[in-house]
Amino acid sequence: MNGIVYAGVALLLFGAEVLYLRLATHYHIVDTPNHRSSHTQLTVRGGGIIFWLAAFLAFVVTDFASPVFFVGLTLVALVSFLDDISSISTRIRFLIQLISLGLLLEQTGLWSGLSWWMVPGLILACGVLNAYNFMDGINGITVFYSAITIATLLVINQFYIPFTGSVLLVFSLIGLVIFAFFNARRQALCFAGDVGSVSMAFIVIFLLVSLMRESGQLTYALLLTVYGIDSVMTILYRLWQGENIFQPHKRHLFQLLVHQLQWPHLRVAGLYALTQAFINGYVIWLTRRDAQMQFWGGFFLLMALTLAYIVVKNRLVATRHKPGQGREKSQVFRRLN
Question: Per residue in 172-188, pLDDT tens?
Fold first, then answer.
């Protein structure tokens, strides 16, 4: 596929995003700042719809390859977009997610026969999908992190082990670059919304499952290490604190860095993406080693990062209630109210 096609896709996605911004503004599809927000002004929600559009273009260009996956992606994107517009029951969203992920696993060939791991496998995939969504809390984090992940998968596909066609990878990366223009800035013009973060998560899960099935190496799951550690450790921390893990919160490490240390969104987003990029290089090296080395290399990586996470987060939590902490942010929201 030549550069003219890629340029055409980029122009189409850019035009689609501009059109969506106008429509969303007209129909008031916006995020309003509240006490849990990391922004202080009305911002268009759902700009990540171009991730679905990028996948649709890839679907058409490849003569409708992977139709079962695309049906699942469309279902989960649709229910997420409807939730962006008007809240939908958690049960309905969870049911659609399970159905969609079932279609994804069917497309990858994992549903060749009934087995005991089908239910826990679906639940695990659903947990990854929602964790990816929950991490979408500041400008740039979804687009930077996803770009690193997709770019890594593209490198693996091109130079190490071909596990899929390159069109979905390249088109998704183009969509991320276009979205970055509107989102990766101090005052974002739009947020990805559930439709964006969930759609991208669905695409990443599909690609990762395809890679792991083709290679037979679960080590590639470490390509989501940073998101995984922050999500799992935050859940464990909230359970330890006796909190309802299904209620909105600001306990993720990236949220503490923004709200307590007052770090700019893009610095935190860049830190997460850069950390994952270094890990990805290590993972590619690790998968060239024998099975025992992969196990212990992955184990020590997870232990080291988990320990670092605990140390940093404990220090931030310890200063949470010190006098003056968060005073500036509180004054901003009092003015908004």
Answer: 999 999 999 999 998 99
CA distance to 130, 189, 278, per residue, from 328 (Å) = 31, 23, 34
Q: How confident is the model at residue 109 (pLDDT cuts 50, 70, 90)?
A: confident
Tokens linked to 29: 């599809």
Q: Is the Cα dihedral 109, 112, 114, 117 positive or negative?
A: negative
> Is-contact 97 122, C-beta < 8 A?
no
Whether 230 has a pLDDT exceeding 70, the answer reads yes
Share of the chain above pLDDT 70, in %: 90
| DSSP structure string for 156-208 | HHHHT---S-HHHHHHHHHHHHHHHHHHSSSS-SB--HHHHHHHHHHHHHHHH
Give me the mean pLDDT over the 140-144 stretch. 95
Helix (H) or strand (E) holding 44: strand 43-44
3-state secondary structure of 31: strand
